Amino acid sequence: MPSTTTTLATLLTNSSSTRVADDQNRPSRLPPITDSISTIHAFISKWDPHSSLSSRFLRATTHLHSYLLHLAASPARSSHSELMRTNSLLQSAMYCLDQELKNHLLSISDAHTLSDTISTVRSIVETMLSTGYGEECLTTYQSIRRSAVTSQLNQLGFDLYINRTRKLRKLKWEDLDHRIHSWIDASQKAVRSVFFHEQQLSEKIFGASPESVRDSVFASIISDIAGHFFAFPEYVCKRVKRSPERLFRLLDMYEILSDLMPDIESVFASEAASPIRTKIMSALTKLTVSIRTILLEFERAIQKDTKKPQTSTGGRVLPLTRYVMNFLLSLSDYEAPLRVILADMPQESDASSIQSYDSDDRYGSPVSVRISWLLLVLQRKLESKAEKYRDVALSYLFLVNNLHYMAKKVENSILKESLGDEWVAVHMTKVRRYMDGHVRSGWAHVSAALPVKEEEPVERVREFEMVFQKVLKEREGWVVVDPTLRNEVRLLVESMLVPAYRAWYQVYRGKMEVRCAPEDIQNRVLGLYEPSSAGSASSSGSGSAKLLRRLGCYLPQRGDISIRLQKEGAKALPGEFSLRYPISYDPHQRHELSLRYQIDNLTSSKGVVI
């Protein structure tokens, strides 16, 4: 079967030959063939790559080709030797034209090149086509323009050769991510500049040919290059792992292709360029499948998370909660592409029953429904984790912190545009309900231990003090992360304990020894739930431990480190840790002290420099 270039060259030659025949049928005064032969001989004898091309030479070449056809059509009136000489001269002229075509094409950057240069190339192309050298002309044109287009893409930062499938298989994610970034950066200029200008150039140079032929010339140059360029997203989809972090690069590629579709449909509108459009649609389909798969895997990862919350964390916000909310926040930045991707995505049975909390249609969009569903999946996981706490009050506190974090993240971000005010209000109501549950389950028994007038005051007040101190010790590391919410919890606990205790205190404070005044109870309650008060399981609550934690230091065990007292200005010996002590410290005391003892002294001294 003939090659694509040969077939296209035949179409070009036939269209040019038809024009030449029409021109020959018109009355005209052609110079004698001897004049044309002389012109061609003169040009060839003096030709070099830097010589200027004259229109006279082009007309003489066309005339010589017509004379050759005349000799071939009248063998009886022409000799074989004359036919061979004419053909040889025409071949020599075509060689010069082919070289001229190469030189002028190499000076063309795009369709904005000087019109004189483009006009000269067009004249050469039309001459070669009309004289039966269409295949040679097209081969030269395709070769040089393909190299030019490939070079322009390389200058944009995307190398077609190194980004083929075989080259991508061995790449680490960091390197692949860099390649994806390069492709995204290059895409807009590739479509709107490189490919567009190449189409315009084909229109100008082959403007005398039929539109279908011009389209075919453009497609023959660009098809392989554009095919490899737009196949890159498919390569990435095959290579990338289904982890949530990779989703956003796929969305970036999908978004840029979607944004460029009007330009793509314009540049590659012809039937000859339809394989390129097919490749782009295939890339969008593969990206859609990969994005949906990662979203489903993300959902399953939340459901399958089996890490048990540690009591020592004091009910803090889980890393899982932070991760999911930050993921959804990033996801909401891709509202436009996700509307298309998620439009007909199959949903879980529970997800399909999710209704918008707001009457606005945008809150019922596929994106809003998907985000609402993922938030519900997270909430259910948090509730299942809360059930693993032995202390009911701590489980409620855990839900307060995590659900409040979710609600505030939505309220203070673009997520609110997807979910609406009503979603935030509903979940803040849940937070208040969990907060009330924490206070009731955690402090009702303390309130029940408050002394009453009818009972023995001494035993009762001692029982209350014991219960209260026990609760304070147990909850030393419990935290309410949000400051406003923290104050609300404190006030709820205070209102449960302090007024009743104050009423009892005012009656009995002069009749017996009372260790705690109402203000003491109040101050202890108001000191609860602070994040800084939550230490690790191995850390003590002493002043020395707090100081070391503030300094970011390791808390030593007894006797494992010693420190040498240095006079002010003295340098520490190698391996020693130097502290400057208050001037009041007695330098004649023993110099070798335990680190804990020194830190204890420091925490109780003023003017210490560390």
From TrEMBL:
InterPro entries: Cullin_repeat-like_dom_sf, Exo70, Exo70_C
Transmembrane segments annotated in the record for this chain: none
One Gene Ontology term, aspect cellular component: exocyst
Residue ranges of domain Exocyst complex subunit Exo70 C-terminal in the record: 182-525
Keywords recorded for this protein, A-Z: Exocytosis, Protein transport, Transport
GO biological process, one term: exocytosis
Molecular function GO labels: phosphatidylinositol-4,5-bisphosphate binding
Function: Component of the exocyst complex.
Family indicated by similarity: Belongs to the EXO70 family.
UniProt xrefs under PANTHER family: EXOCYST COMPLEX PROTEIN EXO70, EXOCYST SUBUNIT EXO70 FAMILY PROTEIN
The protein's name in its UniProt record: Exocyst subunit Exo70 family protein
Species: Rhynchospora pubera
